[in-house]
Amino acid sequence: MGLPVIAPRTGWLAEHIDDELLFDTDEQAVQIAARLATDPEFYLLHAKRAYASTADLTPAAVAARYLEAIR
Predict the structure, then answer these.
(1) Could you write out the DSSP letters of every residue in 8-50?
(2) How far is CA 51 from CA 11, 17, 31, 67, in A?
(3) According to the model, what pLDDT value does residue 46 have?
(4) By the 8 A CB rule, do 4 and 50 touch?
(5) Which are the contacts of 17, defined by CB distance < 8 A and separation ≥ 6?
(6) Which tens digits make up the pLDDT trace of 21-69?
(7) Hey, how many other C-beta atoms are within 10 angstroms of the C-beta on 29?
(8) Nearest-CA neighbor of 46 among 36, 60, 37, 56?
(9) Is residue 8's pLDDT more than 90?
């Protein structure tokens, strides 16, 4: 994990994605993907954020959260 994800600005997924990686049009999506591919600093920033957002998603932690939610 640690791969930056881009997503449309609408829908439930948008609330989990950094604002700089959200797009409204296909053209914006291509621009963001191109920037991730060509701007190492931008990529590393978002790779670190992506990793941090998933670092606690170990199987044990996910299972514990699931069990707590259904109790």
Answers:
(1) ESSSGGGGGS-GGGEESSHHHHHHHHHHHHH-HHHHHHHHHHH
(2) 22, 12, 22, 24
(3) 96
(4) yes
(5) 5, 6, 7
(6) 999 999 999 999 999 999 999 999 999 999 988 877 888 888 988 899 9
(7) 16
(8) 36
(9) yes
